[in-house]
Amino acid sequence: MFRDKESFKQAFQERLESFYGKSLTETTQLERYSTLANMVREHVSTDWIQTNRLYKKTGAKKVYYISMEFLMGRLLRSYLIHLGIYDLCAEGLEDLGISLRALEEEERDPGLGSGGLGRLAADFLDSMAALKLPGHAYGIRYRNGLFEQKIVDGYQVEVPDYWLQEGYDWEVRRFDRSVEVHFGGKVWMEKVRGRLFFHHEGYESVLAVPYYVPIVGYRNKIVNTLRLWSAESIFKEFNINALSERDYTRMMDYKRSTEAISGFLYPADSTLSGKILRIKQQYFLVSASLQDLIKRYKRMGGDLRRLPEKIAIHINDTHPSLAIPEMMRILMDEEGFGWEEAWNLTVQTFSYTNHTILAEALEKWPIDMIQKLLPRIYMIIHEINERFCQDLWKKHPGDWDRIHQMAVEADGQVKMAHLAIVGSHSVNGVSEIHTDILKEKVMNLFYQETPQKFNNKTNGISHRRWLLTANPRLSRLISEQIGGGWIENPLGLNRLLDVLDNCSFLDELQKVKRKNKEELSSYVKRKYGIPIDPASIFDAHIKRIHAYKRQLLNILHVFYLYLRLKEEPNREMVPHTFLFAGKAAPNYYYAKAIIKLIHSVADLVNRDPTVKDRLKVIFLENYGVTLAERIIPAADVSEQISTASQEASGTGNMKFMMNGAITIGTLDGANVEILEAVGEENLFLFGLKAEEVLEYYARGGYQARELYRKDDRIPMVLEPLVSGFFHSGYEEFHALYHSLITDNDPFFVLKDFDSYVSAHERLEKAYLDRDRWNRMSLIQIAQSGRFSSDGTIRKYADEIWEIRSIEESGQIDQPTRSDS
Ligand SMILES: *Cc1c(COP(=O)(O)O)cnc(C)c1O
Is residue 655 annotated as part of the catalytic site, yes or no? Predict the structure, then answer.
């Protein structure tokens, strides 16, 4: 199909016309996209089969990555590039009068995640395949992804994201691999010849049907698998022919409750609502996945006593921690292991990544809920806790306080993070500073007990997606200068340091950025009717809207710049375009109020002729992977301004850096490591340090009101929020005002304001010196290789999972390619 241009053209046209029964010119863009995507999926199937054969034959150790979220983004462009057939397809389609770029726009971007955690999982899959690591993943095929964000009168409105409407061309339904997952019911015990047997009865069965999505390696014939579970009903207990009205209602209720399990993605940061459903989703994911992987393992003749030598299971945050008691259940109740042996196997198999220290995101589930929904799993959790607490008691007799603080079960709740730590042999944080905070503060008691479990794995991003695929102009320029070696070995990007003083290269770099900015400008013009000047500084703040990420600080600063221009209309200012994008959790009032404020300020600024050429504010709707890919290549400045200590790592910061944007940021998360990489003179640092923030949290001593009195600029930007200056958003802006003043500014927005203003002043000055700026930009790109997720995944593979790339793990035949 993809051997050469002519055979591609012929195959494409034949399939398109025969499938849809119309001539090429009558087909829609969507039909053309779909045809191409299906051709690609079929094309990789040979390699897919070969990859699995290869893994089987070598008996290599595998890792299974379990995550409640995957933000895969669009796949067509990325896979065509990975397969080395992008140009061939683009040229072939062009001959047929079709633009490949336009077809790419037809692909839906499945929103099966809410933010960084889900995108990390996707980048990790990309790296595992690129590095030829036997790594597969499990997730949920939510019928509705994270809501689609619309803005109405400056407010966020959530629209269901039914991404499957037009079908999803990358998935293959594998009904033959379905498994049953059980909820509710009763457990009774029986003692037979001195052994306890557990019987689970009266449960409700849900069918878990997997959909397979291929994960295509970069030009290496490796195709790994992402399995997404869909929840379906099993009607076998109902006699459809003799259904009473009551039975009918019962059946419909059952169908509804079953299908709800994979109905919607609950963003992790929306608390309270849907607790029961969320627990069901979590257990559904882990039970289906473990049953599946154990089945596979046994079918290959694997000996369960050697499980940790052959399989590693990684849980992405605490959401899948029920996998630990589920593994115990399978090993004990189904496979006949005793507790001790089952526990050792489990702990040696599991590893866990902590993604946050935010108290509200550390999951705790009410015991009675778990007990009712998952009676057997609860018994196991209870026993894990008993044994764990007994061990602690032996080491710290009488230290009730310590034991209480560390218990898996306490105060009527199951603490999922404690379960994950106790049940894993490795616990990692996601940046150096975050891991230090885990060890020294948040999880310190656990660190004292088992220091050997704790380690750091700084997050990374796929340079193939975020540079090679998302920024073709820059990729081309880099490869022309230093060759294409950086694609296989991203650390090779540092060869760009050799051309740091090469003026013509720096000019070219600036031209690429300018082109990308023009492209984004025309997108903004098309979509919002607002002209933005590609010569202005493109300053981007794109991520989930959250108090700790401090979009409020940014917009208050923009408002300050505006008011200052109104006072001094002739003031010189480098033209600035502030770009925002991000979703707020549906029940997160404060974050939604920030979105409203951004829109109110934008409205004011964008309409005001006095500031016309100097200031623009744009909020781009419906943030997701695809929008990120549009904005990041065009950004000059990357806003990474979280309250220090609160951002575990951030990966947005790395994407911007890799695309040559300069960071303005706090010493938080991976910003610390970006600073180490580029040096203090190439990053605009401001604000409180993490220790200072944590010190204030622990001991107080900060008075927001005092700042309000002392610094004129603060009332200048805050008064209008409550004075009727804005003609809408009255309640929201009061709430923001009171969080800063009455609640004493828990995220230190006002505290960091002064230092943020001066960082921006330094930044503006630096931008005026174009040579200096371009050099700074080049340094970002040159040093970004260390943030490739390839490096991160190598460390996971070596230090946690102990798995090796398929080439190193033994003698293998090279699989042959279908088209060679
Ligand atoms: C990278 C990414 C994130 C994470 O961004 P942060 O700035 O690290 O919070 C969230 N959403 C999408 C779509 C992303 O691509």
Answer: yes
- Measured at the CA of 366, the angle between CA 346 and CA 321, to 5 degrees, comes to 25
Ligand 1 in contact with 581 (CB < 6 A)?
no
**Is position 549 annotated as part of the catalytic site?**
yes
- What CA–CA distances, in Å, run from 730 to 550, 554, 555, 597? 20, 20, 17, 10
Enumerate domains of the chain plus CATH numbers: 59-74+109-459 (3.40.50.2000), 463-787 (3.40.50.2000)
pLDDT digits (tens, 9 = 90+) for 221-274: 999 999 999 999 998 766 667 778 888 888 899 999 999 999 999 865 445 457
Asked whether the beta carbons of 174 and 210 are under 8 A apart, the reply is yes
Q: What is the pLDDT of residues 646-662, one digit of tens each?
A: 999 999 999 999 999 99
Q: Among 280, 376, 549, 583, which one carries the catalytic annotation?
A: 549
Q: What is the C-alpha end-to-end distance of the chain, expressed in Å?
A: 11
Q: Which pair of structure tokens corresponds to residue 588?
A: 């997160």
Helix (H, G, I), strand (E, B) or coil at 633: helix
- Surface-to-core class of residue 658, CB atoms within 10 Å of its CB (0-12 exposed, 13-18 middle, 19+ buried): buried
Contact at 8 Å (CB) between 803 and 131?
Answer: no
Atom of ligand 1 at shortest range from CA of 627: 13
Is there an atom of ligand 1 within 6 Å of 543 CB? Answer: yes
| Entry pTM | 0.97
Residue 811 confidence (pLDDT)? 44
Annotation marks residue 355 as catalytic: yes
Q: Is 652 left (phi over 0), alpha (psi -120 to 50) or beta?
A: alpha
DSSP H or E segment with residue 382: helix 375-395
How far does residue 110's CA lie from ligand 1's centre (Å)?
15
